[in-house]
């Protein structure tokens, strides 16, 4: 049996086998193309910061990688870039996610959370993903970007289609979602250019039109990435955190008793059940290791002692790294008193998640509001179903009673 078998159904069991027997292992991806998966903490952390592992798909060997196949107007984003373009664009958008800006957003986030909980009423049952974990971050990120209310449900549908496509729908559904998003952003940016407002998209348009080297495709791609990543990661994180608390009632009781522990608890939720099984794929710009394609190597420039040829796809797994017993003691146990600093759920190095402060704040506020409102919140289904996706480690639904 290949030690990677069962990755989607039982990821942490698979990661345990891989760390023990094949920490850098060549697998067949979900689409059948070959890739290398990296699972040990030290190797993952090093790979995330290794400049020889490029995000630029131009370095991929022909026929070895299949992605979203986004059009150029959506593809020129930070997840596909290396310095110096990555450095320039990140600097331009970074001011939207400063600590000061996030503090200013805390009040609106809490009001949005309270409003969503008001709609649930005082008692009943609900799907917490559809009614709370999903609409909260989409509202926050759309407010940040200046997207009108009437289009927000569309974005939830489009992003869900791309991250965890329905196999029955076929590839046409993803293509339709991309076309719809491209058309929408084209119209939205034209509107913002005619009538600027106090939102991030208007700010980015102003920067571009004042002479910065931000192209029209880069502007469009930034809008797409901020919406896509800002929504998806936080939905997963909120839902996963609530389920983890249900599965660990002692930890839930401790958090209810001392809500001041929430900021540290969010770090443990990120470590224990982060929003993605795999980080964004990378491509070696040169052979990383020795001279043979699959030999074990002792050279200091390899990945975990294994040679990886130039152009082949490399998947590094923060989720596997965060359960590595060589880094975190008793890693398969949720422990809200643990020092979870150093986890890799939001990346490492120059590609560390730009929206990390916002994701942390949203999750902290969402959990605080939920636990305060419903002291008897309980899981209403025995085995919640996970998305069939390596990109998004999240729940399809989470039925609760209150």
What does the model show?
The chain is mainly alpha-helical and 402 residues long. Helix content is 48%, strand content 6%. The protein has 15 helices and 8 strands. It has helices spanning 11-21, 41-48, 72-75, 85-94, 99-120, 128-133, 135-145, 152-163, 171-194, 200-209, 216-247, 249-257, 262-272, 318-321, 356-373; strands at 24-28, 34-38, 53-54, 125-127, 283-284, 314-316, 378-379, 399-401. The strands form 3 sheets. Strands 1-2-6 form a 3-stranded mixed beta sheet, with helices on one face. A 3-stranded antiparallel beta sheet has the order 4-8-7. A two-stranded antiparallel sheet has the order 3-5. A hairpin with a 5-residue loop joins strand 1 (24-28) and strand 2. Helix 5 (99-120) crosses helix 7 (135-145). The longest helix has 32 residues, at 216-247. The chain is globular. 41% of the residues are buried. Residues 290-300 have low confidence and may be disordered.
């Amino acid at each position: 049996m290949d030690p990677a078998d069962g990755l989607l159904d039982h990821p942490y069991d698979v990661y345990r086998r891989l760390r023990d027997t094949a920490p850098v292992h060549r697998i067949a991806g979900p689409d059948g193309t070959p890739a290398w998966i990296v699972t040990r903490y030290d190797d993952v952390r090093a790979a995330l910061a290794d400049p020889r592992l490029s995000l630029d798909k131009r370095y991929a060997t022909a026929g070895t990688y299949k992605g979203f196949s986004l059009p150029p107007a959506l593809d020129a984003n930070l997840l596909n870039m290396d310095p110096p373009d990555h450095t320039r664009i990140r600097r331009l958008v970074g001011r939207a996610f400063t600590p000061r800006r996030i503090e200013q957003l805390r009040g609106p986030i809490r009001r949005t959370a309270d409003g969503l909980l008001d709609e649930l009423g005082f008692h009943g049952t609900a799907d917490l993903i559809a009614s709370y974990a999903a609409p909260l971050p989409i509202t926050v990120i759309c407010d940040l970007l200046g997207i009108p209310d009437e289009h927000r449900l569309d974005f939830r549908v489009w992003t869900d289609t791309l991250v965890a496509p329905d196999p029955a729908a076929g590839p046409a559904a993803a293509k339709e979602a991309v076309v719809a998003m491209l058309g929408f952003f084209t119209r939205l940016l034209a509107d913002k250019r005619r009538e600027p407002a106090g939102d991030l998209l208007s700010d980015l348009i102003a920067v571009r039109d004042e002479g910065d080297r931000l192209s029209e495709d880069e502007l469009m791609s930034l809008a797409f990435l901020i919406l896509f990543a800002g929504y998806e990661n936080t939905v997963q994180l909120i839902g996963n955190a609530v389920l983890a608390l249900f599965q660990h009632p002692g930890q839930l009781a401790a958090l209810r008793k001392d809500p001041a522990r929430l900021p540290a608890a969010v770090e443990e939720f990120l470590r224990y059940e982060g929003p993605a099984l795999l980080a964004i794929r990378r491509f070696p710009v040169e052979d990383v290791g020795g001279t043979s394609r699959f030999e074990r190597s002792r050279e200091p420039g390899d990945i975990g002692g294994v040679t990886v040829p130039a152009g082949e796809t490399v998947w590094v797994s923060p989720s596997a790294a965060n359960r590595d017993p060589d880094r975190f003691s008793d890693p398969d146990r949720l422990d809200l008193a643990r020092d979870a600093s150093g986890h890799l759920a939001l990346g490492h190095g120059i590609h560390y998640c730009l929206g990390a402060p916002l994701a942390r704040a949203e999750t902290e506020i969402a959990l605080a509001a939920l636990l305060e409102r419903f002291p008897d919140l309980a899981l209403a289904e025995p085995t919640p179903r996970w998305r069939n996706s390596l990109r998004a480690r999240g729940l399809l639904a989470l039925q609760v009673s209150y």
